[in-house]
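Lab notebook, bench 4. We co-purified these components, and the gel suggests they stay together. Before we commit to crystallization screens, I want a quick structural picture of the whole thing.
Request: model the full complex, all chains together.
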Amino acid sequence: MKHGQLLGSLEHIVLLALARLDGTGHGMLIRREIATRTGRDVSIGAVYATLERLEDKGYLSSTTAEPTPERGGRAKRVFRLENAGQSALRISARTLRSMTVGLNARWRPT
Amino acid sequence: VRGRCRKPSAFARWLLGSLLPISFREAMLGDLIEEYNDIWELSGSSLTADCWFWSQTCRSLPVLLWEVLRDEPFRSIVVASGVYLVMLGLKYGVALALANFVRGNARVEISLAPITFAVIAALGGYVTARIRYQAIVVLTVLVIITVVALIALNACPIPVPWWYRPGFLALAPVAVLVPPAILSASTAQRRP
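Here is the predicted assembly.
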């Protein structure tokens, strides 16, 4: 990740979901993980568009699995979190931590 | 029963298949079909599963269209505009020839107009898909704008039934998108 460049919010969440799935998963699993953890029902289109962007940036790689009957004979694309993706997550987490430190006292409970 | 595949709405699948970027078309449609089957099994209702599939389709389309347009948009605009101009010339030429042929027979003229329009739009969709798949979205938008402008300008001098103009508006995107959908389906079938 270039110095000063941060992940977008959905990019961040998608990378975290993939990290929670032990670094590998396909679009549907990632979407479900996000829905379970955040309660956000993200559309599959948004997940795939983000995955594609993250792959272009080198944070993920993908392989195509064999087509299965449950999927109407369509192949599954399995995404894998790469070292660059893990490093981007670490930088984002560090940045967020440094920006939020000391703010807890100012936030009123909702 | 696990392993049995129920298929969601053919129109929704066709719509997504026509507009999805090639790079993740198969994977995304597969994911949707898999989750659709899971929802059907869990809820025991095809209506719940269908509603979920349609909501995913409608919510995904704007994001996906944006992704398609973001990928070298200038090239897509150039290709779609070029094909669009050829289509306009062809439509004008065919309309002139037909007017000459039917010699003022309004009924024949309004019957033939949608057919020639659909054929030329489909031809344009096919050529665009062969040159640059992403440009189909731009071409569809151009064709819809043209039809809306012609309706607004009341360009048709012959009296037509009420359904004629809305029919043209519905026909426009379908005619442009059918050939790319067939093309993409046949490409997917050929893939090992």
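Residues 27 and 48 of chain A are 6 Å apart (CA to CA). Worth comparing against the SEC data before the next meeting. Chain A touches chain B through 23 residues (CB under 8 Å).
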